[in-house]
Design brief:
The protein is built from 5 helices and 14 strands. The protein is an alpha+beta fold. The protein has 2 domains: 19-93, Immunoglobulin-like (Sandwich), CATH 2.60.40; 110-200, TonB-dependent receptor, plug domain (Ferric Hydroxamate Uptake Protein, Chain A, domain 1), CATH 2.170.130.10.
């Protein structure tokens, strides 16, 4: 009885071993005849692999797999028929044009962004700034933006205070560039050209 079970176990092991076999090969560019590295090699019922830098690959293929697929962006996908008595294959990839899926970029207006922003943003136009009397930009903004105050430390030097926060707690951006001079010293105002402002927020 013990020999019978050993015999059945060996048959099952041989049968399982016969189901998978190793296939190796090299992938070459058909035009240049040079190896192509990092190409995806896959079979339908087994895990895929990639070629190394020299274009070589090894893959375990099941007996039910008769085709392996070799694919890469920039080349046409190659289907290679597998034969049980052959273990090494040379795959020639044809360079091709690969088109990626269409990308749609959608822009929204400032009004839409302002409605979706959870923080209230107040915009002041150039016309409003010009109509408001002030010695500098901050003075003009304090008269048009609620919650904005200024501390004057000298002629033409005003520092913004937004709802009680000032100095290094207020970030000033001029065309997206941080302006930090007003944050540290009392005698340094906003480093913004008051005559070159289209809109202030």
């Amino acid at each position: 009885m013990k020999q019978y079970f050993t015999f059945i176990f060996l048959l099952i092991a041989l049968h399982c071993n016969a189901q998978n076999f190793q296939v190796s090969g090299v992938v070459l560019n058909q035009e240049t005849r040079l190896p192509v590295g990092y190409i995806t090699v896959s079979a339908k019922n087994t895990a895929g692999t990639t070629t190394n830098q020299k274009g070589n690959f090894n893959i375990s293929v099941g007996s039910q797999d008769s085709i392996i697929l070799v694919s890469c962006i920039g080349f046409e996908t190659a289907a290679v028929r597998i034969y049980p008595n052959k273990s090494f294959y040379t795959v020639m990839l044809i360079p091709g044009k690969s088109a990626l899926a269409e990308v749609v970029v959608t822009g929204v207006s400032k009004a839409t962004l302002a409605r979706e922003n959870p923080i209230p943003v107040i915009g002041v136009s150039t016309k409003k700034l010009e109509q408001t009397m002030g010695t500098n930009v901050i003075d003009a903004l304090t008269k048009n933006a609620p919650g904005l105050n200024a501390v004057k430390t000298g002629p033409n030097i005003s520092k913004p205070f937004i709802r009680g926060l000032g100095y290094n707690r207020v970030l000033t951006l001029y065309d997206g560039i941080r302006q930090e001079g007003q944050q540290w010293g009392d005698e340094h105002g906003i480093e913004v050209d008051g005559y070159n402002i289209d809109r202030a927020e």
